[in-house]
Design goal:
It is a single chain. The protein is an alpha/beta fold and 308 residues long. It folds into three domains: 79 residues, Winged helix-like DNA-binding domain superfamily/Winged helix DNA-binding domain (Arc Repressor Mutant, subunit A); 109 residues, D-Maltodextrin-Binding Protein, domain 2 (3-Layer(aba) Sandwich); 102 residues, 3-Layer(aba) Sandwich (D-Maltodextrin-Binding Protein, domain 2), CATH 3.40.190.10. 41% of the residues lie in helices and 24% in strands. The strands form three sheets. Strands 3, 4, 5, 6, 9, 10, 11 and 12 form an eight-stranded mixed beta sheet that branches. Helix 1 crosses helix 4, helix 2 crosses helix 3 and helix 5 crosses helix 9. The longest helix is centred in the N-terminal third of the chain and has 25 residues. The radius of gyration is 22 Å and the shape is globular. The two termini are 32 Å apart. This is LysR family transcriptional regulator. Pfam families: HTH_1 (PF00126), LysR_substrate (PF03466).
Length: 308
């Protein structure tokens, strides 16, 4: 474990306020403030500066963070090497994932891993991709299954190891009886004039729909927003608009909606990544978790496993 004061600084970088960083670390704001003041005093440099209601790192703070990220990766690597000297797959593995991946892939993979290793406890967290990265950073999860999104960690982010996992096609979702419902496949641009249902702006689905429509040459006219796919399906079923749904999404069986495959070239897909803290991928428990998730992905039809 690196100095908790360095960890507080690493988390503060993303959150911008002591209060938000403290919440992510399960600490009080006064504790985090004391940690950061003590660290600055010990190093005899200013690490933070106030900008409005937020704080940002000084050049010295940025320099310290580069070293902190290297130290954190080295700690993870050491843990992985030491774990190889233990017998069997045991302990606790925490996996975070966005909702569709958790339901379709992670939950069955976690159950398979748990059942095969009686000494292992597996804990699952469902959240949006940005928060899954946060749980990795704070140590609340060990593996995250996420979607890349604007503002998220870059592929070479020194805090994480990110690897391609799968490509998941998107289908056009229309109400039963819609003029496109009986087609064996459509181009996305054929739905350009339709009203559209998306996720809320904070939900990854909003970005997915916007990006796919832009690639097809139009901006969707948003008529409704939801926080989950049952909500999207309900709005579509009752004629409020059309939407895109990923192939892995589970919809209510009684929803009067039709999935229509898209025939664009290239067809829009969601690309999932697996992510772990840098240095931790070779930990035997994490390695086993990643392997069984990939195994379950290979068993699913309609998706393409990446990186094999």
């Amino acid at each position: 474990m690196i100095d908790p004061r360095l960890q507080a600084l690493r988390v503060l970088r993303d959150h911008g306020t002591v209060t938000a960083a403290a919440a992510a670390l399960h600490l009080t704001p006064s504790t985090v403030s004391q940690q950061l003041r003590g660290l600055a005093r010990e190093l005899d440099v200013e690490l933070l500066e106030q900008v409005g209601r937020r704080v940002q790192l000084t050049p010295a703070g940025q320099a310290l963070l580069r070293h902190a990220d290297l130290l954190a990766a080295q700690v993870e690597s050491a843990r992985a090497e030491l774990a190889e000297h233990r017998a069997g797959i045991a302990g606790i593995l925490r996996i975070s994932a966005m909702p569709t991946a958790l339901a379709a892939l992670v939950a069955p993979a976690a159950a398979r891993l748990r059942d095969a290793n009686p000494g292992l406890a597996v804990e699952l967290i469902e959240d949006e991709s940005a928060h899954c990265f946060e749980t990795l950073l704070t140590g609340d999860s060990d593996i995250a299954i996420v979607l890349p999104a604007p503002g998220g960690p870059a592929p070479d982010d020194p805090r994480f190891e990110q690897r391609p996992l799968l490509a998941e096609p998107l289908d056009l979702l229309v109400p039963a009886g819609h003029s496109l419902a009986e087609r064996g496949g459509v181009a996305l641009a054929e739905a350009a004039a339709e009203p559209w249902i998306t996720g809320r702006a904070r939900i990854t689905h909003h970005l997915v729909v916007s990006a796919a429509c832009a690639a097809a040459g139009f901006a969707p006219r948003i008529a409704g927003q939801a926080v989950d796919f049952p909500g999207v399906a309900a709005m579509v079923a009752h004629g409020f608009g059309v939407s895109l749904v990923p192939r892995l999404a589970v919809l209510p069986p009684d929803a009067a909606v039709i999935r229509v495959p898209l025939r664009d070239d290239p067809a829009p897909v969601r690309r999932h990544l697996s992510a772990v803290r840098r240095g931790g991928a070779e930990h035997p428990v994490i390695e086993a978790g990643l392997a069984v998730i990939r195994e379950v992905c290979r068993e699913r039809t309609g998706i393409t496993v990446l990186g094999d």
